[in-house]
Amino acid sequence: MRPEHWLFTIPLRLRSLFRWAQADQELDDELRDHLERKIEEYVAQGMTQEEAHRRARLDLGGIEQTKERCRDTRRINWIQDFVQDLRVGLRVLRKSPGFAAVVILTLALGIGANTAIFSVLESQLWRSLPFPDSERLVDAHLVMRENHTHWDVLPYRGYQAWRTASHSFVSLSAFHYPSNRNLTAGGTSERVEVMPVSSTLFETLQVPLEQGRTFLPDEEVPGNDHVAILTHALWQSRFASDAAILGKTMSIDGAAYTVVGIASARLRFEYHLDEPAIFVPLSMDPYQQAPLRNTYLIARLAPGVTRERARAELSSLVDPIMKAEGRASESVAEVTNLRETWTDFAARPLYFFAGAVLLVLLIACVNNSGLLLARGLSRQREFTLRATLGAGRAALVRQSLAESLLLALAGGTIGVLLGIWGAQAFAAFIPEDTLPRKTEIVLDARVLLFCVGVSLFSALVMGLMPALLASRVDLNYALRQGAAGISASRSQHKTRSTLVIVEVAIGLVLLFGAGLFLSSFVGEERAPRGFDAPGALTFHVSLRGENYAKPEQQQRYFNSLLEQLRLLPGNREVTLGSGLPLTGSTGVSGTVNIAGRPPAHKYGTYVTIHAVAPNYFRGLGMRLLTGRPFDSHDDPASTNVAILNRNAATELFGAEDPLGKVLDFVAQPHRGVPPQPSVQIVGVVENAQEFGANEVPQVGLYVPFAQRPLPSAYVLVSSDVPRGALLGPIRDAAYSLDKDQPIFDIKTMDDRIADSVRSACFDLILVACLAAVALALVSVGILGTVAHFVQQRTQEFGIRIALGASPAHVLGQAIGRAYGMGIAGLVFGVALALAIGRILGSALYLVPHEHSGMLYGVKIYDPLSMVVASVVLLAVLFLASFLPARRAMRVDPMVTLRYE
Amino acid sequence: MIASVTEDIEMSKPSDLVQGTLDMLLLKFLALEPMNGFAVSQRLKQVSGDVLQVSDGSLYPALHKLEQEGWITAEWKTSEYGRRAKYYSLTRLGRRQLEKEADNWGRLSSAISRVIKLKEA
């Protein structure tokens, strides 16, 4: 139809729809007016009142029929019909509250779980970052050419080239992640998060300052960089929103900084790390040209520029510089969406859970489909009557769907509430730092829309098949069956069995998944950790400020700290290392080659390096496999020595004895790795977990702290004194040495073990909950189907028993039927689980170069989990079919036959 | 029986009227002057005598259909006898529709009359 035509008719339709009563009233008036005139006319022609009245009505051909035909012209009848269907549906459902309650609750559970996971996905992965036009923001970095997930260090000149010569960006800026530093102002000091940023950051993010000015390019040079911008929150809380703070100075880690600006209240990163409180210039010495370690680049793409184009341009800019450094072929530029870069690490597990939750909804729908089907059977008479009275098949299907829709909407409403509650519970219980963003989970339009969509989807999935089957009414057959009951047709039995098979199959997938996560969790708990230090208290010290710039100063501080701590009563062992097991990689690393041999790898072998005190291995209970531990003679004056972990010994030497061999460090000035003295290997120690059981074992090297002091170290205190009483004296000892050097990350080694398995534990609980819900739903489904089967065959069983069949035989037949469906479901389920496992395989397990997979120590073909899942399902199957089947056994032949 | 009632209604349709012709007639009447349903029924009877038997029961649904199509529009007005009545009048769309239908009708009827006038061999 022409658009112009719509212009006219749409308002008319809307009027008919929304001002239905008025339109009807007018129709009434019009026809009454007509009648009156007609009567007058007939009277004028000489008829009596009554005769005129009768004739006028006759001419109109039945007032109500005419009205109905006038209404039909409005073309919105289907909506009114649908409303009518809903009304009828509501009445019908109100009559069977038990049925409705089961269906609605099941759906609410399924929809709720889906809403929860959706709102988590939305708030964590899909929601735009809190900056204007944030999808144009990208992360620019270098990646290794061979493996794009491996980042490379950007040369300083490359950064300069990108910043000044690139046309792909409106603005490019660099930043470091915030670090915890000591702020002193107005006589009091506190720890605040300080974030070094380049002068362009606020421009790149397009969040201008509230007051003052941004940093100047000059201030990105060491010596000029003692200026600061406060966040709005800090300005408000610490300085009472006083604008006079601009131009004043305050001290950060003992150095004076001048406040030049206040950031906007709108500036939030919503990143899982702490929000910064103060920005300082990210200063780089242009003369040193140090490569950009720990530095991240954000840029805003220029209008019309794609990421591919930016990538090509950045590569072309950095290539000549790389060539000059002799590493032209090593790395290429990469430009990624900033939001995706920030959230990528959490996407895999979240999508995995979303998939599992979707399976639960499917089971709920299939289950309800079965219930609706059974109900459709018992309502066959109603449908038959309606069909007899002239209802078309479409009308019957519509009526059935209207009921499903009502159920789904009720389920959806409860589901939204459950979902929001569930999402908050999810966010509260998920281990810290597993979610990438600190965003609020809210019930917004997107979530609501999703919920409505899921409800409609569920209504269709669960309602369509029963509706189609129920509407297939064979009038002749149905009427002949009489009042006693219409038995299910073959196709209906088949459909119900299929539904149960589908349910069992999906249930098996979830149970199998839960089994995998359970054995993975048990595996992680039991995995050898490589250390044993029960009750040992540990904490981190990271020396800052000008007093600790030199290695000797760092060494002196830690020596004094250890001495002080050894004086504490109850002391058993006090030691330190630049890293401890389960604290994650410490950031000190290098590449080594065996002295006097050609390098095994092109760039040497990558090792993580721990600088440790002589008694480190004893304190942590780490087993020395061969050689000797460090001792007090391994000082700066003697030979530089090292101890390998088992992994490094195998990686570097294979079966050869490493003792006495010498390792050369590869200097990489362009990556900021200065030359290091070679080390002689004096021992090999057992591998210790760096992150947790599910990690790629580190190629690790231990060196004496005395030969390579570092500003940052973990201290371990083993003591007879309980933790609570120990902490105070430790703090006193540390702060008496220097009150400005805080001790933090205070945990026992047992805490660290618990933390390392927390994520696996959370995954397990979540998957187990989903599997439990699935199991409950499946058992309800089987129970209903078998009960229905028995009810349908009551007469048959009665006759059989009367003819001498043993009750046990009848029972066996009923249960046998359940098992027929169960076994078929199991077969499909196993096939489905294996297929899903194949697809998800790489996503579920540990990936090289990453330190967490979701599963540890199990294979997707894990036979134990598969067997256990099958046995559990069969047991549930037996219970769920035994209860209703027992009724078949107890059938009294007299009663059933008399009933006939 | 319900079915037979339905059939009665079907029967009252002006079966001797070519499909769509009633619409054209109504449009034409309303093109002459706006009028209410009763007046339209009177006019139908006057003009066509007993040839076109359009019952009141068919008239109103037909008028409502034209209204829903946007070809005519209705307005409540007080009539000459001081009575409120629903007056229908032609819209711009309706006028165009009338021209189209009249055109078709002209072509159809002249074609048919040509056929009828053919001399038998």
What is the topological layout?
The complex is a heterodimer of chains A (900) and B (121).
Chain A: H1 3-18, H2 20-44, H3 49-60, H4 63-72, H5 77-95, H6 97-126, E1 137-144, E2 151-152, H7 156-165, E3 169-175, E4 179-185, E5 188-197, H8 201-205, E6 211-212, E7 227-230, H9 232-239, E8 249-252, E9 255-262, E10 278-281, E11 296-301, H10 307-324, E12 331-337, H11 338-378, H12 380-388, H13 393-429, H14 445-471, H15 475-481, H16 490-526, E13 537-542, H17 551-566, E14 571-577, E15 589-594, E16 605-612, H18 616-620, E17 624-627, E18 641-645, H19 646-653, E19 662-665, E20 679-685, E21 700-704, E22 712-719, H20 723-737, E23 743-748, H21 749-792, H22 794-802, H23 807-844, H24 863-889, H25 893-899
Parallel strand pairs in A: 5-10, 7-9, 16-21, 18-20
Antiparallel strand pairs in A: 1-2, 1-11, 1-12, 3-11, 4-5, 4-8, 6-9, 7-10, 8-9, 13-22, 13-23, 14-22, 15-16, 15-19, 17-20, 18-21, 19-20
Chain B: H1 2-11, H2 21-32, E1 35-36, H3 37-48, H4 56-69, E2 72-78, E3 84-90, H5 92-117
Structure, briefly:
The complex is a heterodimer of chains A (900) and B (121). Chain A is built from 25 helices and 23 strands. Chain A has 900 residues and is an alpha+beta fold.
Question: How many discrete domains of chain A?
Answer: 4
Taking all Cα atoms into account, the compactness measure Rg of chain A is: 38 Å
Biggest interchain interface, per-side counts: A-B, 30 and 27 residues
Q: How many H/I helices of chain A?
A: 25
The largest sheet of chain A, given as strand count, sense and whether it forms a barrel, is:
6 strands, mixed, barrel
Q: What is CATH's topology name of chain B?
A: Arc Repressor Mutant, subunit A
Average pLDDT confidence of chain B is 77
Q: How much β-strand is present in the residues of chain B?
A: 5-15%
Assembly type: heterodimer
CA(first)-CA(last) distance of chain A? 61 Å
Please, how many helices of chain B? 5
Number of separate domains of chain B: 1
